[in-house]
């Protein structure tokens, strides 16, 4: 559990010199044990937080810049890209007004040829990613959504 030799070296660190005469060996042993356990628990909590941060960052990076692992996440990403690219549609649906976000209400959609070309390129990329999901592994509702998005 813990090393007595290490304990003997460290026990004086925790004792107040005025109380060191009255403090017993058991109190010092308990204080050393508490310190060791606290350090061990804090190390484990730090390791768990670091692993969770890495997992969440890998998930978000894959979701935002690459093909998501789940087809439903792919649909969500495509919907969010279209929604936030068209402020008129965002105002019409009123999804973010309930959270107090209203900065998009005064903006119009960009109908320039350059924006239309970038939108067309994004649709081609999304269609290419959609076709990477095998149809035989999809649920019936996902197949319907895949066919609708493929047609669109």
List the helices and strands and how they pair.
Layout: H1 4-14, H2 25-65, H3 71-85, H4 87-93, H5 113-130, H6 140-151
- Oligomer kind: single chain
* Coarse morphology: elongated
Number of helices: 6
Number of DSSP strand runs: 0
The portion of residues forming beta strands comes to: under 5%
Order of secondary-structure elements:
HHHHHH
Structural class: mainly alpha
Please estimate the helix content. Answer: 55-70%
User: Can you tell me the residue ranges where pLDDT is under 50 for at least 5 consecutive residues?
Assistant: 7-12
How far the N terminus sits from the C terminus, by CA atoms, comes to 65 Å
Give a quick set of tags describing it.
single chain; about 0% strand; mainly alpha; elongated; about 150 residues
Give an overview in words.
With 152 residues, this protein is an all-alpha fold. The chain is built from 6 helices and no strands. Helix 1 crosses helix 2. The longest helix has 41 residues. The radius of gyration is 29 Å and the shape is elongated. The relative contact order is 0.06. About 4% of the residues have low confidence.
